[in-house]
Amino acid sequence: MSQKLEIGQKAPSFSINNQDGKLTSLQDFAGKWLVLYFYPKDNTPGCTVEATDFSKFSPDFAGLGAVVVGVSPDSEKSHCRFIEKQSLSIELLSDPDHQVAEAYGAWGLKKFMGKEYMGILRSTFSIDPSGNIAYIWPNVKTKGHAEAVLQKIRELQR
């Protein structure tokens, strides 16, 4: 089951494939700030807003020594189509059995039109260069989120 993470604790380790089938691990980002965001589904309205905003601000994140990575249960092929269709400049990781989402507490019970089901809880984690959770955004609203994350990383680096 999903666990509750707290600011200051070590970020859960992971190794899953990115859109190109390349194994990507938490350790790959050692020494950098990592923005790890969990989203439900490629090419859906809210997820598209979030991904295009993170892409738009990726030069600003890079200027702060930060990398933005999205995680969803979608396949590598789906991620490739999403990146191509939306001209995204961020890396997307494929978590089909939602192990990474569960480790980060981003998998849980959702409700839609009176039905309950398990799914991705839209959330974002800022991980510092030492691999610790620096900040957590639960229950993310997509509009303006990328800017808020950018602002928070600026604050955390002061």
Sheet-strand content, in percent, reads 25-35%
Distance between the termini: 35 Å
Order of strands across the main sheet = 5-4-3-8-9
Low-confidence stretches: none
Q: How many β-strand stretches?
A: 9
In N-to-C order, the SSE pattern is EEEHHEHEHEEEEH
Can you give the mean pLDDT? Answer: 95
Count of helices? 5
Gross morphology is globular
From the helix content, strand content and strand pairing, which structural class follows?
alpha/beta
Structure description:
This protein has 158 residues and is an alpha/beta fold. It is 30% helix and 28% strand. It has five helices and nine strands, in the order βββααβαβαββββα. The strands form three sheets. Strands 5-4-3-8-9 form a five-stranded mixed sheet. The protein has a two-stranded antiparallel sheet with strand order 1-2. β6 and β7 (115-120) form a beta hairpin. It comes from Pannus brasiliensis CCIBt3594. Belongs to the peroxiredoxin family. BCP/PrxQ subfamily. Its EC number is 1.11.1.24. Residues 5-158 form the Thioredoxin domain.
